[in-house]
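Protein entry
_____________
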Amino acid sequence: MTFFIHGDPKGQPRPRAFARKMGARYVARVYDSDVADEWKQCVDNAIVKAYSEHKPAFEDHRPFEVVMTFWMRRPKSHLNAQGFVKPSKPMRHAQKPDADNLVKLVLDRITRLELIWRDDSQVAYLTIAKYWSDKDENIGCNLTLQPLSMT
């Protein structure tokens, strides 16, 4: 199953903590930042749509091969006055967000939906790439989920 997730890719944010005074004591509170909420929604919508269109019959506990290619929005500094990419600018995206954080968010969303697998520990092979996109309509992630044989 291969499909494209349209949206601005974000990495899985780190949990944030703060101390709140309650009476004479301080109590630690932890919360998730909302910085990636829009991307999470894009991922969820794309997974549900792809699943409903393909209706794959995945078996429980089957290993998977996952290929993710992330296409990131180029900064304006990569473009010349005519709007074309400067020849000196790279094609590969080698800065934040980190590839592992991008992947973690997508795998966690697939696990949470419980449509494809029970747990992302079923991912036996993982390939990741990050590139700059020259077109806004290509910003997102190309995702391939391939069940593997048990042997």
Q: What stands out?
A: The first helix runs from residue 37 to 54. The mean pLDDT is 89. Helices lie at 37-54, 99-113.
